[in-house]
Structure formats: C-alpha cells, structure tokens
C-alpha cells in the first residue's frame, strides 16, 4: 500500500487547519512502514502557479452569465486552486505508482479524475474526505464565495457524482456524513461512506501561572481566546460584539490566534469601546495560549468538527462553543454550547466568566471527554481498514 494525501492547504494553513490533524496520521503510517506522502499547495512549482493565475485572469475577463448572483472571479480562484492540486496529484500518482490517493476536498478529486485520463496505463484507488459540514459546495458558499442558485445546483450535482464514484467518503462526525447525504439527495447512505473523527490532539499543557509568565500576560486581567483563520465562517465580528456586552469587574483582553487581514476586526473592536486592542498572534504552541486563557470561545457559523475546540478540552480550558455543525457531537458536555447569535453568545460568556464554579465544572467535563477520545493509533487503524477494504472492492 502506497498512499498520497492531497489537500489545498498552504504551509501557513497547516498551522491551524487540516494539517494539524493529518500530520500525526501520516507519521503513524510511516512508523508502520507504510509509504505515505502529503501534497499541498506549497508543492506546486512556479510554472504551475503561473499557469493557474493566467487561466484565472482569462476566465475572469470573460463575460459571465447575467442574473446568476454568483461572483465568478472568486469562484474561479477557488476551483482552479483545487483543480491544479488534482492535476499535480494525478501526475505524481502515476509517476510514483501510488495505490491510494486520498483527496481532502471533492473538487481536488474532480481534478484528479479528469487528469488521470492522461495516464491510461495507471489506475489508482481514490477517495474523499469532506471537511466542511454538509456538502462542500455549501461550505464554499458559507466561507464567503457568493454562489447563485443555478450555479449551486450544478456544483452540487458535480459533487454528488464525484462522491458516488469514490472508493470511500469520510466526514469527521456522523452528523456531518448524514448532512452531506441530505444536501446532495443521496439516499440511502452508501456503505462506503464513513464518519471518522480526528485523533486526540497532542497539546502542550502548562500551569496557568507559568503559561502567563511565558506570554507576558497580566496575572489579574481576564483573557478570552479564540483560534482559527480570519474568515467569515469564524464570525469574529460576532465574537467582538458579544465581548463588548460583557459586564466584568476586571478588564478583559481578547486574543485571536489566526492568520489573515485583521485590520477590520481591530477597527470594530475600537468602535465597540474595547479598553485594549485585540491581541493577534501566530503560534505553534497552541497549548501555551489555551492554558493561559480564562475562557476559550468559538463563535463559528459552521464547523464540521472543530479541532481547536477539542484542543481546548485536552488542556482543561473552560470553553464556550456555538452549537453548529458537528460541534455538539464532538464536545457534548465538555463546553457550554450557545446559539450562533450575539445575544446567546454574550449570555454564555457572561455566565462562564461570572461563575468560577461553572467554569471549573465545564473544564473538568471537557478534560474527561478528551481523555476518553481515541488516539492516533486507533484512528490510523480505521484509516488502514478503509483503504484495505477499498482495495478488495
């Protein structure tokens, strides 16, 4: 068995995204003597990137259909990124004779299928993991790409045909895999579709005082932490407005670990009357920040799983999470769940920060849930079983 994992991530995406959950699986496979490679956008050569940008400019310059309510330049960028990864995956898979190609995006799989036609002497077993909650077309739309109804229907049909042709389809929660089937009108659930959680993350843990000393944080202030790339789906403006409603005896400091343009968020914090600017940071040691924080908050509009939420549970950090996507299935009673609106989120945060006993109870429940979570060995066993089953089908 020789496996190629393919994602559309950049190297910076891997700090907070999919790479954090995949890297331990790759390493465990290699420890078992299985040949596994990990392919992402950083592996694209200059010519491939140049071709992608030229083709994107060409498509964006063409007159698009009227009244579709679709922003085609952004859509072309999203699709070309993925097709280009599918092209590179097909080339490397045929060259190095991978037996299994695992596409962590259905549109990468679409590109892979198309470009494999140019290698008629090679046949690969391939499958897909869907990392959005529900169908990926919907996830793209929720992530800020404007899609009209007609284009949405075409893309959903495209996605459904791809998943039905795959040798396996995986989502990280049962709610997620059922939502994909619902979104794409695929019933009953195919036997080769699976829900497979991310393995329990390995996170550095510190005493709160030590963590704050390392970060240079004020011992008496209240620190509220959120983690994730700066994107519409993370709803950071909602978090900021909810923080502005808090009534606390001590001053608070909002900290966001996530890459992206944060100027608009900083401006919103100033307009909302924050006493301190938001502290934005990029960190490899996420556990250091979690252990130093008084409260971890996820305000996301959608999450297929929410790895950062599970990391908060692993460190025993009190957490408030919006009850979206697969989050309730993952955290259960290990976090205080809130509806994804300002009133509910502000109320949940206020309750947690005003009630130390509640925070301690939630944190202990979260730690107990994290301690019972399957580790990388068990999750790799499941991956291996799925791959071997696909080989025999």
From TrEMBL:
<dbReference type="Pfam" id="PF00534">
    <property type="entry name" value="Glycos_transf_1"/>
</dbReference>
<protein>
    <recommendedName>
        <fullName>Glycosyl transferase family 1 domain-containing protein</fullName>
    </recommendedName>
</protein>
<dbReference type="InterPro" id="IPR001296">
    <property type="entry name" value="Glyco_trans_1"/>
</dbReference>
<feature type="domain" description="Glycosyl transferase family 1">
    <location>
        <begin position="208"/>
        <end position="366"/>
    </location>
</feature>
<dbReference type="GO" id="GO:0016757">
    <property type="term" value="F:glycosyltransferase activity"/>
</dbReference>
